[in-house]
Amino acid sequence: MEDIIRINGNKKLNGEVVVSSCKNSVVAILPSVVLASEIVKLYDVPNIKDVQILIKLLRLLNVKVTADDDELTIDPTNITNIDLVDEDVMKLRASYYFMGALLGRFKHVRMYSPGGCNLGPRPIDLHLKGFEALGAKIKQEGNIIEIDAEELTGDDIYLDFASVGATINIMLAACFARGRTTIENAAKEPEIIDLSSMLNKMGAQIRGAGTSEITINGVSRLKGCIHDIIPDRIEAGTYIIAAAACGQDVTIKNVIPQHIEALTLKLEEMGVNFEIGSDFVRVYESNNLKAVDIITQPFPGFATDLQQPLTALLTKAKGDSHIEETIYIERFKHCNELNKMGANIEVGSGDSMVHGPTSLTGQDIFATDLRCGASLVIAGLIANGETIIHNAYHIYRGYDSIVDKLRALGADIK
Ligand code: EPZ
After folding, report:
1. Same domain as 13, residue 72
2. How many domains, in total, are found in the chain?
3. Which one in 7, 25, 143, 288 has a CA-CA gap of 20 to 30 Å to 386?
């Protein structure tokens, strides 16, 4: 697939787009299958780069994975706990879920430290603190991390920050730990509920997912299951924002409204015309948009992953929109690219100010991370003339068939 996306902007979007299953759920669910002693079947698996990499890593562990369209059959019965020192481990941060899963299953894991988007420093100290609380010993030599435990014993773990990754990784490591593990100040993202409900189907005893206190009672084994992954709230939000920017009448389907409440409330504040159904959002042509202020927070606050796409829309809003990032203070690399197109955005330390409205003109611009790429696509849809987005591979990591889906809505994109 060519690494460039070309968009001739300023076209009205119409029609329906169906949201795929959730990237940040499936990238936790795939590694967690190593905890199972029987076959797991997953439906509606999104066809994105991150999924392909995780399937390759599962196969390195001798886990049989067969794909039949968007259905995955995963057989972990002959799993071998080899060192995961393949360079693909460093292509996505979520590979670190193999730490919690392999430690939980085998009390030993040796692998490369994770990679992923360059959103500033992305430590895993809270993950490791959790593993140590369960009785694990950690050795780090260069880029390789080795974690061993004689025994894994439940403990009370407090997270200094409601980290999604740490919450999930500790949950995985605690599934077979003796006794009860409590995670205080746990992250409440819907992906955590999705994973917990799958693990409980397999025989785990996890309570409280979606609240700030999760308890896990250790069990001896997990059986297989069938699981349908939740829709991707960030993909949904991205298309809703694109429709607010250039839509005439666009319906975004396969949405759980409760998962994007912070976004829809802000769009209402901006004066976007839309209606919310039970599992869809319908967006109508919206003009005279008003500036709004955003502060990113852990769920259910405004998602950090959506502040970048929303910034593109805010260039059309009248007034000054202040965006404060409390999760990733360096998540503003898209602003420089948008300014090249004619936007007027000032970037501070951990915040930005979008002065609007400004008109955008197509340019050669560069994606630097997944959601930055999404922001540039929306800017390209808005802009007059042709926008060429380089390093499009970032975008394909998290948006299944984004070019086809936008073309089906009437965008001039390839
Ligand atoms: C998950 O990343 C998502 N990735 C991110 O989505 C999302 O932006 C983020 O949660 C916040 O919602 C996946 O689910 C694969 P965190 P994660 O642990 O788990 C600090 C996307 O675009 N922190 O909640 O890495 C960390 O540095 C991606 O789909 C520590 O300090 O997020 C960051 O500032 C981007 N120590 C903050 O917490 C730790 O041990 C949030 O991290 C762990 C995290």
Report:
1. no
2. 2
3. 288
Which domain covers residue 104, as residue numbers? 23-228
The reply to whether 332 and 285 lie within a common domain is: yes
Gap from CA of 303 to ligand 1 centroid (Å) = 11
Does residue 377 share a domain with residue 401? yes
pTM: 0.96
Do 325 and 408 lie in one domain? The reply is yes
- Both 262 and 408 in one domain: the answer is yes
Query: Do the beta carbons of residue 135 and residue 152 sit within 8 Å?
Result: yes
DSSP label at 226?
A: E
Ligand 1 atom at minimal distance to the Cα of residue 129: 40
Ligand 1 atom with the shortest distance to the CA of 167: 18
Taking the centre of ligand 1 as the mean of its atom positions, its distance from the CA of residue 162, in whole angstroms, is 9
Determine which residue's CA is closest to atom 18 belonging to ligand 1. Answer: 163
- Taking the C-alpha atoms of residue 8 and residue 322, their distance in angstroms, rounded to an integer, is 29
Q: What average pLDDT does range 102-126 have in this prediction?
A: 85
Report pLDDT for 2: 67
Question: From the CB of residue 55, how many other CB atoms can be counted at a distance below 10 Å?
Answer: 18
Q: What is the CATH number of the domain that holds 86?
A: 3.65.10.10
Sheet holding 319-324, edge to edge: 294-295, 319-324, 351-356, 344-347
Q: 170-215 pLDDT, tens per residue?
A: 999 999 999 999 999 999 999 999 999 999 999 999 999 999 999 9
Single out the residue of 289, 347, 358, 287 nearest to residue 322, CA to CA: 347
121 and 75, same structural domain?
yes
Residue 246 appears among annotated catalytic residues = no
Nearest CA to ligand 1 atom 31: 123
